[in-house]
Each structure stands twice: as structure tokens, then as C-alpha cells.
Predict the structure.
Amino acid sequence: MTAVIYKSQRIAYWYFALALVLFALQIVVGLWIAAQYVVTVPQAVVDVFPFSTARAMHTNLLVLWLLLGFMGATFYLVPDEAQSELAWPKLAIVQLVVLAVTGVTALVGFFFGWTQGRPLLEIPTTLDFVVVAGALLFLANVGVTLYRARRWNAVQGTLLGGLVFLAGMYLFGMPFYRNLAVDWYYWWWVIHLWVEGAWELITAAVAAYMLLKLTGVDRKVVEKWLYVELGLFLFTGIAGTGHHYYWLGAPRAWLWIGGLFSALEPFPILLMVWDTWRAAKDHPGALRPRLTWVYIGGMAILHFVGAGLFGFAHTLPQINYYTHGSQVTVSHGHLAFYGAYALLNLSFFYFAIPRIKGLPGGRYDERAGHWGFWLTSLGVVGMSLAFGVAGVLQTYLERVRGEPYMIAQQPMRFWMMIVFAHGLIVLAGVIVTVTHLLTLKPERAAVVVPLDVPVPTSRAVGSA
Amino acid sequence: MSTRLAKAIFWVGTLVSLAVFLAMTVHTHRSFDALTHADALDDHVVAGKRAFERHNCNDCHTILGFGAYYAPDLTRAYARLGEDAVRRRLEAPEVVFATSYRKMPQQHLAPNEIEDLVAFLRWVSNIDNHDWPPQDSPNRWKRSTERLLATATMTPAAALVQQENCLQCHALGGTGGTQGPRLEWIGGRRDAEYVARYLADPDAVSHGSRMPAYPNLSEGQRLMIGEFVVSLAADRRAP
């Protein structure tokens, strides 16, 4: 399939376009945040535009653009899988406008101190209700489309399950909690069960769909591995929430449960890497355009390194006692979000946009895209390593030696400068990628081999 | 592997983990009251939490290790800094951090907001969270007391600290007051000369400080106390 069949799939493009603009904006704010660790910002500036405001913008832009990307991907994928138009295409446009207006209001509001004041969930409660309304429109639209089509399969089921899970968890972040410990307990129901639960489901479904379409591998094989991956993701991920409960005033048993379950979290990601590698190896002819595979491969590897390895490095309570709440967490956070979710979205954009634009064979002039990928990825990897060094310094100086916070921060400033430098590389890469994606041109070479009907290989069928 | 087995892995894996998680959630809720001293969680503390959120404190500071990493963790800030220093940072950050390379915004807090925030931080500092963070751990202060008993009590500086009743307001080792900052903490950040100047005229060094001046001591005595305080740093920096 190299062109969209259903008209409503095209709506996805506007979600992707907005997501990409917000992504670029997120990096710009990120650079300002990094700069504040390096230079001394005058009191007059701090009074008007403190670090906290910029940080709220940086993280909310991240969440907003990733969710818009997921929603766009869903609107692209669902009609194709259900083999029918979206139930209410116009509602999908309305929903985008609602979410865009909410997002802009929230960002401007932060500047004027309109905030719920809880990290990542800063959007004020009033706007939370608008977000919930937007989410309900979205779920209704997708749910009714799938229900009417009655062509249930594992990919759709996983995607819908992930989306309902995502929306449901958001509710736990809305109330005011009197007790700070209870507050953080449920804060993690949103954040952890998103990134190590609901979002993994969505990622698995979207990645499985892309692999199906690109390689034409037997659906039964893909679905079978999808069940196993999801089983492992949820087995390790749900009780693995406990690795956030070590030091918030919860019972000591969490040190065991959180440690044991979360130590297993790298395994399902490893299975995903193996799955991608197998798909690529078994279908060498399908690796076109190459950029799609650079992205899918990059996603598999950096998802494993960022979320799996960097996460494991400080998930055991014996280590986490010293690293908790330091720049070590920041290092893991940046590489994991990029590797798992930024790259998933960008992979899907590179898969879907040429098809929405009807470029022949799903091909496009991909040269600039490679620059974009390598600049951004090397930038983020370098940044995460610099955060990591800063984090190890902080852990040793502040936590082990007991030096006061500001004394320990002093030698870290050099490494935050390295972070800033890599941030510039990331910004360059993101500008290249965003421009490239929004202005995809047909391949220069005139000869295009249609890949409309990929032939399943005997091997794939045989291993079923 | 058959699809049947794959589906079984999915359901068993998910449900086992969910069951563990929900059972632990019940257990946690039963333990929260005792671990967080919920009986002390009055409206004052709750108002403090609301002020903490209203001013987005948590997007610079961590608390219980969560939040942004731009400013010190607040879990034990009350115990580490003392009530007076907490209040001063909330009232006049531009004065307290005038020479610091990192600033805190002046948010023009109302007096009652400051009192609420102090109450909130006092309550938070008592949460039993398995002795985190390590840099504020009472075990560290106990070691500091042992060091003190082994060496410092015999010095004239220790006698001066005793004579001037410094521990009425400052904590030291396992004892002392919570009006001023903990002496080991001061020792980690300041040198002896600074402490000596502070003793001579606190208001001149840090405008608005509520600590009394000690003009009754000689310059040499003040410097001696300064050196004593620096020697108390929780983990002395290498020379």
C-alpha cells in the first residue's frame, strides 16, 4: 500500500504538521533551560520568566506533540485497518482545533502563572476538562469507526486498548490531593503507566502496523509476537511502577516489588528489537525507502538503550537511593523519550506523509532526512551522556559526600554547557527534519518499482 | 509458539502484575497515615501545599525527589535550613541569593502564604521515607556527632559555642534548634572568615538576618568559631 485509500486518513497530516511545529518549539525552550544551568540569569529576568515556567513549557510541549502524533497515527491507521472511512471526519478536525487552542492557552497561561503547579501536569484543572472532552471526542470517533466496521484484529485492539488506558489514567492526575505522598502516588499512575504502559501499547500497535505494511509479513506471526511483547510490557510495567515508590513515604515492600519487576523491564524492549531485526532480515527487498528503516532501526536501538539500559542502571533501590532526583534521571528521561516516542512518531510520519501526499511508490527524495536523523540522534545521545556525567558528579558530591546542593552544582555547570552544545545540534537536526517532512518531494530517479503487493516469504509463513 | 500460548502469556502476565499492584495499593493506603503522620496534616499544611502548587515551586525544586532539578530538594529543607532561613528565602530571595550564580524568583508572597509554606515544609520533613535523601540523613548527623565527640569537644571553639548557646537555634549532630541552619550545612558552604564576619554583624552580611550579633567576642574568637563550624561539614572537602 503506497497511497491512502480512505479520504479521512488525510486528516492525520494536520496532526503531524502541528506536532512537528511544537517539537521544534520544545527544543528551542529546552535550549533556554539548559542555558540557565550554565550562565547566571539576572534577578530581573528570573522574576518575570523563571526556570519553572520554561520547564513547564518544555515538558508540556513534549506531551502535546507526542499525543498529537499518536492521534494522527490513529486516524491514519484505523480507516486502513477497519477498511472504512472514519465515522466523523469533521469531528477529527474539530478535535484538533480544540486541542490546539487548549495547548496554546495553557502555554500562554504558564507565562502568567496560570498553573496547577504539578510537574508535567501543570495544565490548570479548567483546561483539564477541555482535554478530557477532546479525548472523549477522539475515543468516540475511533471506537465507533472500529465498532461499525467489525473487523477486529490484534493491532486495532491493542491500539484502542492503549488509547482508553491513556485517557483513563489522565483522570488520576486531575484532583487536588491533600497529602503530598498520596499526590505523588497517583501522579505516577499518570506518568509511569503512560510511558511504561499505555504508550508502549500504542507504540507496539503502530510499529506492528508499519512492519505489516512495509514487509507484508504474515499478520498471524506479527500478532502472535505482539501478544507476547504486550504481556511482558504490562507484566513488568504495571507492578514496575513501584520503582517510583521507594522514597515517597510508602511501605518498604515497594523496594522489593519495584526493584524486581522493573529490573525485568528491558526484556520486552529487547524482544521488540529482535522483532524489528528479524523483519528487516527476512525482507531485504522491503527496506525502501532506506530512511524509514534508519528510523525504525534507530527507534529499536535507542528505545532499548534509553528506556531499557539507562532505566535499569538506576532502578534498583540500592543505587536509586543515591541517584533519585538527580541529573541521572534527566539523562534517562531524555534518551528514553527520544528513543521510544519521538522516534516512533517520526518513523510513522515518514511512513504516512509520502502516502498521504500520494508520492509514487511511497518514495521521496530522502537525502535531507538522513541528515535530520543523524544530527538529532547524535545530538540527543551526546546530550544524554553529558547529563549522565553531571548526574554522576551530583550523586557523588551531593549524595555520597554530603556537600551542599549549590557546591555540588558548581562542577556540573561545565557538563550542562556540553548539554547546551548538543542541544544546538539537536535543534539543527530537528529543523532539517521538520522542513523535510513538511516539504517532501518525489524521488529524483524516475524509475519507481511499485511495492503495492509485497509477497509474504515462505520463511515468515513457515515459522507461524 | 502457538497463538494460544501467546495469548495466555499476555493475559497471565497482565493480570498477575495488576493483582500485585492493586494489592500493594491497598496496603500502601493503609500505611500512609502512619508513615506521613497524617494526624499532623492540618488545614495549615494543606494551604501550604496549595501555595506550593500556585507558585509552581516544584518546577525548579524537587520534593521527595520528584520535580525539576534546578534547585535543592525540599524534602528535608525545614530540618536542614531551619525555620528562619526558610522564611527568609521565601520573603527575600533576591537578597539571600544576591551573590549566588543561580537565582530564585521574588514572587511577593503574602505573609500568610509564607507561614503556610513553612507549615507544609515542616510536615513534609517528618515523612518517613526510608531515610531519603542521603545528604540529609540523620545517620549522617549521628556520624557527625561521633566525630565531634572524638575531637572537637576539647577545643576552645566548642566551649565558645557552648557558652554563647548557639545550639538554641542551630542544629548540630543529633541535637539543637531549628531556627537557624544546621551547623554542618553552613560548614559545607562557607569558609571560616565568612562565618567570623557573620558573627560580627549578621545584618551586614545578609540583610534582614534575625541572628543576633556577637560583638562581645574578639575577632580571634569569632574566627575560631568559624574554623570550628567549617570543620563540622558533613563531609569535609579535600584541601
